[in-house]
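To fix ideas, we close by showing one paired sequence and structure record:
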Amino acid sequence: MGFLFEAARDFLQAARYFSMAAEHAFRLFAFGEAELSGRRGLRMLEAAPQDANSADNRQDLERSLLVTLGNSLLAGKGFGTQEVRNILTRARQLCVGDSPRLFAPLWGLQTYFVSRLELPSANDIAGQLLRLSENSSDRSLRGIANLGAGVPQYLSGELKAAKAHFERFQDLDDPGLRASGARRFGLEPEILLRAFDARVMFWWGYIEQCRRQTDEALLMASELAHAPTLAFVIAMAATTEQWHANVDRVDELAKELVALGAEHEMQVWLTEGSFFEGWVMTQRSKDSNPGIDKMRRNLAGYAATGTEMYCPIGYAILAESYRVHGRAAEGLQVLDEVREKAWWAADPVIYATELVRVEGELLAATGDTKGAEDKLTQSLEMARRRQLRPSELRAAISLSRLWKGERRQEACELLSSIYESFSEGFDYADLKAAKATLESDCG
């Protein structure tokens, strides 16, 4: 219908139909089609004659087109492109005061800033989202506001504050509202609140609880069949399983993520899934080149979307892969690249502890014992300060191996105290490694 009205030169009516077409395509995860319809609708609106009597309706239509276009670009092209910011900033400007219509462009901008790890800006918008939602009876709206507030706190390592938002899924989740919430916001809030809450449990050392809750979120996302939400949860699950060195499970999740990203042209998830596939290759082959090349290529592709959220742990995994395969100098070059990233110089992110630990391991591999000890001690202190117990355990394992000569007793006391603080997850890789080190060096 939009083309018919365009041919008849009724551009305003054409814009309305292209807006509806864009919204319909977005709901079907046809993000490329949604983008095309949204752009065409905006061109029709620009061509339509100005009419003072319909100025408000025209602004509403422009805002709707911009929000749909912005959300389509977020899902398809990447969360952090400058065009997304420009589009959603314009949509925000078209909202008067604290109108409920302000929520959608604010949420899109929040996604933009979080994905780029511009956490102060994300926290500022989070406050606005919470204020707009605080008196609302709309569960999905309150859920997305709590998600928007919790994620930047989580990424900054403020886990207690983040969990206060994430655990709201317990009273906000309504299975009957999940589909409509996902359609409105591009992501289903309560499922993601549950998944992020599981990640906090992971960092606090409740490894089995994390896995159970993550599996619940995966099942819910699969049943909902909302592609962006499912991709997000798969990526989170794969990140957890990679930490545990569960190669087969990462392989399964990576294949699912790549397939989903390819089917719906979601570039962020396609590249992240391909990165995981590269890591699996490095674990299964003595020839590290194909896997590492694939990791490097897809980490660069991921960052090319403007999205940075996975990059800190991605670079840590890449550098560690170089070390495991006896290529420490190249691993250190990767970390030199990290220091040039804007997110490294800004507020610290949750995976900074792992980047510092990996640097210590790489320095140890090159024979720089003093440099290695400094970095590993720094990683341990950072993990303790933020209550990142899996990171604390890893740093302690690394230090105990470095100290097993002259400082053997100190190494044993350090590792033993951290190992004994865990109450579950003893069949996972790092806890098994800690136990083996204690038995071999401290028995």
Observations:
- Residues 35 and 343 are 29 Å apart (CA to CA).
- The domain at 1-95 is CATH 1.25.40 (Serine Threonine Protein Phosphatase 5, Tetratricopeptide repeat).
- The first helix runs from residue 2 to 7.
- The radius of gyration is 24 Å.
